[in-house]
Design brief:
Length: about 270
C-alpha cells in the first residue's frame, strides 16, 4: 500500500520509526522490518543511528530503488550552509547516494525556517533528496513556507494518533498537496492507554486484529502515512499486517469520537531544544 506525493514520488503507507532506538536495536529492527515486508525506514540525525540503519540497508541486499529512506535536519544545523553540510553528513553516515525524503525536524523561527528550506530546495534540485518536507509544523508554519518557497513541501510529519487526530491540519495539508505523516501513531509511551481503550478493544475483536492494527488502519484509511516504532520482531510484523481488512464508515466515525486533542510531545511553537 503506497501514497503518491505531489511530485509523483511514491511513499509506502507504513514505515518503521527508529526514534530512541540504539544503534544495535535500530540495526536489528530494520533487518526485521525489511524481512517483514517494510520498504520505508524513518530516521533522523539526532537519533544517532543513521550509520546502523545504513549498514542494515546494505546488509539486507534489497535493491536501493525498492526502499524509501527518510532523515531529518536537526535544529542546531538549521540555516542555509549549515543545513547543506548536515545533509551531506547524514548521507555519508547512511552510506547512501540519496535519501527519499529530507525533513526540517522542528520549527525554530521563520528566519531559520526559510534559510533551511532554501537549502532543502537546493538538495532536492541536486537529486540527492527525492522529496522534501517538514516535521512538527503547524498550519501557520507551513503557510510561511508556501508564501516564500519555490518548491512546496511534500510531507508534514507530526504526532498523530487516536487522541490527537489533527483533522484541521490534515485538511489544510491535503488542500495544499502535502501528505500528512504520523509519528507516535500508537501513542508512544502512552500506548497502555491505547491498549486498554474499550472502543479500540471492541473494534479489534470485531475484525480479529490487534488494537495497534486498528489504530494504524484508521490512519491508513484517512490517507495518512504512519511510522510506528518497535524493536520487537513480532510487533514489527504485526504493524504492517493491515491490508487484509477494512474499517467501515461506522468504525471510522466511532474512532473519530476518541479525539481529545491530547498532545504527548513538545508544543510546535515552543521548542526548547
Amino acid at each position: 500500500m503506497n501514497v503518491t506525493l505531489s511530485n509523483n514520488t511514491v511513499i509506502p503507507a507504513i514505515g518503521l520509526g527508529t526514534w530512541k532506538s540504539s544503534s544495535e536495536d535500530a540495526y536489528n529492527a530494520v533487518l526485521n522490518a525489511l524481512e517483514a515486508g517494510y520498504r520505508h525506514i524513518d530516521t533522523a540525525m539526532i537519533y544517532g543511528n543513521e550509520e546502523a540503519i545504513g549498514k542494515a540497508i546494505k546488509d539486507s541486499k534489497i535493491p536501493r530503488e525498492q526502499l524509501f529512506v527518510t532523515t531529518k535536519l536537526w535544529n542546531t544545523d538549521q540555516g542555509y550552509e549549515t543545513a547543506l553540510k548536515a545533509f551531506d553528513l547524514s548521507l555519508s553516515k547512511l552510506g547512501l547516494e540519496y535519501v527519499d525524503l529530507y525533513l526540517i525536524h522542528w520549527f525554530k523561527g521563520y528566519e531559520k525556517q526559510m534559510a533551511s528550506w532554501k537549502a532543502l530546495e537546493t538538495i532536492y534540485k541536486s537529486g540527492k533528496a527525492k522529496s522534501i518536507g517538514v516535521s512538527n509544523h503547524n498550519v501557520h508554519h507551513i503557510e510561511n513556507i508556501l508564501k516564500n518557497c519555490e518548491i512546496k513541501p511534500m510531507v508534514n510529519q507530526v504526532e498523530t494518533h487516536i487522541t490527537l487526530q489533527n483533522v484541521f491540519l490534515h485538511e489544510f495539508c491535503e488542500s495544499n498537496g502535502i501528505v500528512l505523516e504520523a509519528y507516535a501513531p500508537l501513542m508512544s509511551w502512552m500506548i497502555p492507554d491505547l491498549l486498554k481503550n474499550e472502543t479500540m478493544i471492541t473494534l479489534a475483536e470485531k475484525h480479529d486484529k490487534t488494537v495497534p492494527q486498528i489504530a494504524l488502519r484508521w490512519l491508513n484509511q484517512r490517507g495518512i502515512v504512519a511510522i510506528p516504532k518497535s524493536v520487537n520482531k513480532d510487533r514489527i510484523a504485526q504493524n504492517i499486517d493491515l491490508f487484509d481488512f477494512e474499517l467501515s464508515k461506522e468504525d471510522m466515525d466511532l474512532l473519530f469520537t476518541l479525539n481529545t486533542g491530547k498532545k504527548l510531545f513538545t508544543d510546535m511553537d515552543n521548542v526548547p531544544y
